[in-house]
Amino acid sequence: MAMSRGEGGGVSVVMPTNAELGVTIRRLRRARHLTIEGLAHDAGMHPTYLSGIERGVRNPSWEKVTGLCLAMDVPIIELARDAEDEARLAARMRVARSELGLDDRTERSDRSDRPE
After folding, report:
1. SS3 assignment, position 5
2. What is the rounded distance in angstroms from the CA atom of residue 29 to the CA atom of residue 23?
3. Which of 23, 59, 93, 114 keeps 20 to 30 A from 87, CA to CA?
4. CA-to-CA distance for 45 and 68, rounded, in angstroms?
């Protein structure tokens, strides 16, 4: 997530990462009870490409994002706002983990040490 300040220390702007955009798209898709295959078809893309967007490993063009919004009947501004909210939440969670002395490596190693 990138943050910038306006002139004179104004309101910070949150710029979601591809991962945060993907989480938002997945949440919106699931809320509408759509499958990856169904949404991908409606948006004119391959299901594996949509899966990559949702996992944050693809960098979708505006054309792809617009297609997804149209297929889900979601205004682009709603998607952008929700992705910004996701970015703010992710930032707060990183701060909380840091304050608790946790980091991503600790979490991953803790999970790998747990018996299944």
Report:
1. strand
2. 10
3. 114
4. 9
- Which residue, 90, 67, 91, 69, is CA-closest to 78? 69
Tens digits of residue pLDDT in 9-63:
555 667 899 999 999 999 999 999 999 999 999 999 999 999 999 999 999 999 9
Token couple for 99? 């304050």
- Collect all residues with Cβ–Cβ distance below 8 Å to 14 and sequence separation of at least 6: 1, 2, 3, 84, 87, 88, 91
Would you give the DSSP letter of residue 115? -
Q: What is the pTM of this model?
A: 0.76
In this structure, are residues 79 and 28 in contact, taking their beta carbons and an 8 Å threshold? yes
